[in-house]
Amino acid sequence: MSKIAFLFPGQGSQQVGMGKDFYDEVEVAKAVMDEADSTLQMNLTNIMFEGPQETLTLTYNAQPALLTASIAMLEKFKESGITANFVAGHSLGEYSALVAAGVLSFKDAVYAVRKRGQLMEKAVPAGKGAMAAVLGMDTESLQSVTDEVTKEGFLVQLANLNCPGQIVISGTKEGVEKASVLAKENGAKRVIPLDVSGPFHSDLMKPAANELKQVLDNLEMKDANIPVIANVTAQPISKGAEIKEKLVEQLYSPVRFEQSVQTMLDAGVTTFIEIGPGKVLSGLVKKVNRRVKTYNVYDLSSLHDVVEKLKEEQ
Question: Which are the catalytic amino acids?
Answer without folding.
Answer: 91, 201
